[in-house]
Amino acid sequence: MATLLRKIGLIRLHNRDTEDPKHHHNNHRAGGGGGGPQSAALRGKGGAKSGGHKPPQQPHPAGGAGDASPGPGKGKGKRAAELAPRDKAPPPAAVAAGAPGAGGPRERAAGARAGPGPAAAAAAAAGGSLVPAARQQHCAQVRSRRLMKELRDIARLSDRFISVELVDESLFDWNVKLHQVDKDSVLWQDMKETNTEFILLNLTFPDNFPFSPPFMRVLSPRLENGYVLDGGAICMELLTPRGWSSAYTVEAVMRQFAASLVKGQGRICRKAGKSKKSFSRKEAEATFKSLVKTHEKYGWVTPPVSDG
């Protein structure tokens, strides 16, 4: 009996919907179709399978003032405007310089394989050339300040052990006069007998002085022994890059040389003809290079302190 009553109720509802079009239209707008809770449930199941029923979109005026929502074509236009800057070509300067971030992924990968462009390479070369120039300028300033100080210190010596004359007014080329050696030595006696007032030496200072030693050689008189070799070259370890220290002063080097002359039994050459032959710089440089190679191979012999 209950089942029969439910069927009769459903038939009445169906007849009412078909007979009253206005009521059917209102129910369709309110819930997408009439029929009560059971019809709504049936429509819900059907909507889940078919993806739901979308209400028809109302037309909007295009470009109206005060319209808060964009028109049908505005959303796509805005999206395209946002994506446009990403696809823009890189500026000419970035392409010319070979910037790693220029262009898309393929362009960036190709730029990474090809390396920096000509403009970037030129800028790097210009920057690299500035570094040695600045370093050279700094070394020149250090050398000049050190040599000016050396000259002042030598001028203040009370015993007039040495004196300095600049060659052609050059701060980096000195003629140094050694006025004194050990007065108990045979060399001192030779100086007295030959009326030799001083031993003249030449010192030239390299660009990286005081971090490299000066080149020192004897000019006159012509000496024998005393670690003075052909051309006036001097065999002293402290005059080599291996034995040099930036703490050495010109005065300290000259005092060491005077002690070496005495230790090596240096004498003034008195042989006829040979005594008048002057030392040459070219010969001194060749001799010095040769002796440095020899001592680097076999080592240097340092005399004990008791021997002076």
Q: Are there runs of 5+ residues with pLDDT below 50, and where?
A: 23-28, 30-35, 37-42, 44-53, 59-74, 92-102, 303-308
Q: Could you spell the SSE succession in H and E letters?
A: HHHHHHHEEHEEEHEH
Largest sheet: 4 strands, antiparallel
Number of DSSP-assigned strands: 6
Oligomer: single chain
Distance between the termini: 141 Å
Strand order of the largest sheet: 1-2-3-4
Structural class of the helix and strand makeup?
Answer: alpha+beta
Q: What helical percentage do the residues reach? A: 40-55%
- Which range does the strand content fall in? 5-15%
- Number of helices, counting only DSSP H or I runs of 4 residues or more: 10
Question: What's the Cα radius of gyration?
Answer: 51 Å
On the 0-100 scale, what is the average pLDDT?
Answer: 73
Query: Given the C-alpha coordinates, what overall shape results?
Result: elongated
What report would you give on this structure?
The chain is of the alpha+beta class and 308 residues long. It has ten helices and six strands. The chain is elongated.
Topology:
Layout: H1 2-19, H2 21-31, H3 36-50, H4 74-83, H5 92-97, H6 105-114, H7 118-155, E1 162-166, E2 173-178, H8 186-193, E3 199-204, E4 215-220, E5 223-224, H9 250-263, E6 267-268, H10 281-298
Antiparallel strand pairs: 1-2, 2-3, 3-4, 5-6
